[in-house]
Amino acid sequence: xxxxDVSAVRARFSALARELAFFDAPGGTQVxxxxxxxxxxxxxxSSANLGGPFETSRRSDLLVGEARNVAARFLGCxxxxxxxxxxxxxxxxxxxxxxxxxxxxxDEIVVSRLDHDGNVAPWLELARDLGLVVRFAELRDDTSLxxxxxxxxxxxxxRVVAFPWASNAAGTLVDVARVSELAHQAGALAWVxxxxxxxxxxxxxxxxxxxxxxxSPYKFFGPHLGLAYARSDLLERxxxxxxxxxxxxxxxxxxxxxxxxxxxxxxxxxxxxxIDSIGWDAITAYERELxxxxxxxxxxxxxxxxxxxxxxxxxxFCFSVRGxxxxxxxxxxxxxxxxxWHGNYYxxxxxxxxxxxxxxxxxxxxxxxxAGEVDRLLAELAGL
Length: 384
Hints:
The protein has helices at about 5-10, 35-45, 55-75, 90-100, 120-130, 145-155, 175-185, 205-210, 230-235, 260-280, 280-295, 325-335, 350-355, 370-384, and strands at about 20, 80-85, 110, 135, 160-165, 190-195, 210-215, 225-230, 300-305, 315-320, 340, 340-345, 360-365. Strands 2-8-7-6-5-3-4 form a 7-stranded mixed sheet, with helices on both faces.
């Protein structure tokens, strides 16, 4: 096990050189300086569209190829199976709409009440257009997915099982390989939202059994961008929405509309290299330690919504503060130099299930946080 030198990590983030303690990572992480520099360097030295015979265009061609290779390594897939887009939700709407060309009235989609709405609303909209049936898999009281209920929702008309790898609100993990197996047994696609999982653990789409998987680099120390994987046989079969002159190769490129944000691809490459330089073993062990520290010190005035230990979760915590609305609690913490979120974070079904019409407070830990910051947050929560 490699220990994490958090001081050395933080020295790579100019954004962290302030009193504000960032517990807002579930809404987007800070980026290391090498990501900022990679974006700026592309804009200074290589900015051009693709396919030209001149230097900057050739550099851009090489960058896009490198970005696909880096994404393939990050996801555990082939470079031709990579799709870039504006963000996860945009990619989700685009890919569900593409799959819709193969669906018929009465076909069924199973989603879960644990999902971010980016993996629910696209299916609901498609259902309205095509006469599909959308079924919701239920949750247990501890915010874990009720896999037995999900299995009971499956039928010979199920075409897709869409679910998160980790809850963006409560941090709960889903047994992605088991749910994918159930989907495949029903003859359906396993459609995985890995946005909230990606900053905390490595992804292997083959081990997960995912047919389609989406994530967001700005949640794992990169720029605002969307990233998707889809199995090559699906990409070959699906007819994309694209302009006619656009190349059909590589496969994933068929589903990318317009010119890619090359400077953000440069930042994405730098973000993955940054993660590689730290190592997942160090990241996961350190985050678990900080998560345990937070859970052990959470004051009685705070009600946790979710798993009470670090088993089966990532270090994202959803809680209510007695006597405070979520908005008021977040505002008071902000005045004390602590960045947390409040509301439903687009986890609309989960908040309904928890009976929280105003949502809750959300604090997220990533590997650039410190034990001292966690202690500051706990002390201020006790003061609230």
